[in-house]
Amino acid sequence: MKLLLISDIHLGDKARCESLKPNYSNSVDRDYLKRLEEFQSKYDVKPDKLIFPGDMTNTASASEFREFDRILEKLLTIFSIDIENCFFTIGNHDSDWQIQRLFKDGDVFEDYFDRRYDNIDKSKYLKLIAERSIRYDGAFDYFVWDDANLTVLALNSGFPEKFDDAVKAGFIDPSVLEAIESKYADILSNDQFKILLVHHHPHLYSNPMVAWKDFSAAQNADILFEFCEKYRIDTVLHGHRHIPAFKSELFESGMQVHTICCGSFSAKLDYRLQGIASNCIHVLDIEASAPSSTITEGRLLTWSFIENKGWVKSSFDRDGIEHVISFGQNLHASKIIEQLEEIDLENDQGFLRLRDFLTPDKEMTKMRWSSLKKIFQEHCDRKGWEMVGDQIEDSVILFR
C-alpha cells in the first residue's frame, strides 16, 4: 500500500508558485504543477491513497477552499487516485481567524469562534471526505475513517486555538482521545495498519539556528504516544513544521511507532533554510509486518523541489531528509557487529561490499541507512578498518 503525503500547501499568498496563489503576483515559480506531472511520469509514482496533514490553505478564506478543489482535481488526475481514497486533518491555517477578529466580546464572539471552520464546506471535496468519516456530525475536532486495509484517525490539534492567543501551540485534547476510545474501541482493536494524523508536531525537533524558538509543538504529546502504544497505531503523520523529518521510537511493550514530519509541499520557505530544507513530497510504502513481530516494515520515499531542476530525489545534506528511509524492526548495534565480525573471519578478499552484506534475508535491511552507516563507521574506527562510500550501493568496508 502506497500513501502519497502532501502537507502544508498554504494555497494563497504564502505559496511559492503562481498556480497555487490565485490573485497574487509575487510567485517564485509558474510551472509547479506541470513539473509535478513530469515527476509522476519520470518516477512512475502510483499511490493508492492521498493524505493531507493540514494547512491546505493559508488564510482559510472561502475562495482558497474553492481553489483547493481545483488543485485537488489536478492531483487526483496526475496520480490516478479516487476521492474515496483521500484523507485530511485541519491545520491552524485552515481556521478562519478573520471571522474572530470581527467579533471579540462576550457570547457573540463565542458564536463566531464556533464558525471558524465554516469555509471548509466551500470545498466540495473536503466536505465529501469529511462526510465519509464514520464520525461526522459537522464538528471538526476529529475524524475516523475505517477502510478495508487502512484505519485513519485525524485529530485537530489546533481546535482550541484563538487568534489572539499569545502562543499558538498545538494541543492534544484528552477528551477527544477518550471520546474515540469510548465510541470506536472495536476499530481501534483491529489488526490492520493504522495512522494517526495530526497537524502540529508532537516532537520538539532540533532547530537549524539558535535564534529560532519553537513554541508551536503539540502540547500533551505524551498522551498521544500512550494512545498509539495502547492501540498499536503504527505511524503518526504531521505537518506544520516545514522541515521534513523521520523519527522511530520503540516502547517498553515492544511497540514501535514511526513519526513522519511531512514538511511543506509548496510554502515559500524562509531563505535561511536554503541548504537545510526544501519543499517536498513523500510516498509512504507500507510492505508488511516483520515476521517475528507486529512491527510494520516499509519505506519512506521523498523528493524535493529544486529550482531549474524540478522534483528530484531528496538528499539529506541539501533537503534535510534522505530519499529512501527504510523502517522495520531495529536491531541492537551489537547484533549487527556480530554479523560483521563473522564476515571478516570468512573473507579472503580483505573487503566487503555492503550491498552484498545487506541481503533481503537480514532484518537489518529494514533499518534506516543513516543509522546503519553510523554503526558501521564507529565499528570500523574501533577496528582500524576503513569505510568508503555514501550510499549502500557504493559503500565498501576495507578490513586490511
Written overview of the protein:
This protein has 400 residues and is of the alpha/beta class. It has twelve helices and 18 strands. The radius of gyration is 22 Å and the shape is globular. 37% of the residues are buried. The model has no long low-confidence stretch (mean pLDDT 87).
Helices and strands in order, then pairings?
Elements lengths: L1 E4 L26 H12 L5 E4 L9 H18 L6 E3 L8 H6 L3 H8 L10 H9 L9 E5 L3 E6 L14 E2 L2 H10 L1 H4 L4 E6 L19 E2 L1 H10 L4 E4 L6 E6 L5 E6 L18 E10 L6 E11 L3 E4 L2 H4 L4 E4 L5 H14 L4 E3 H4 L11 H15 L2 E3 L7 E3 L2
Parallel strand pairs: 1-2, 2-3, 5-7, 6-8, 7-9, 9-11
Antiparallel strand pairs: 1-12, 4-5, 10-11, 12-13, 13-14, 13-15, 16-18, 17-18
Distance between the termini: 44 Å
Counted beta strands: 18
Helix/strand class: alpha/beta
- What does the radius of gyration come to? 22 Å
Biggest sheet overview? 7 strands, mixed
What are the main properties of this structure?
globular; alpha/beta; 6-stranded mixed beta sheet; 18 strands; 12 helices; 22% strand; 400 residues; 7-stranded mixed beta sheet
Short recap of the structure:
Helix content is about 30%, strand content about 20%. With about 400 residues, the protein is an alpha/beta fold.
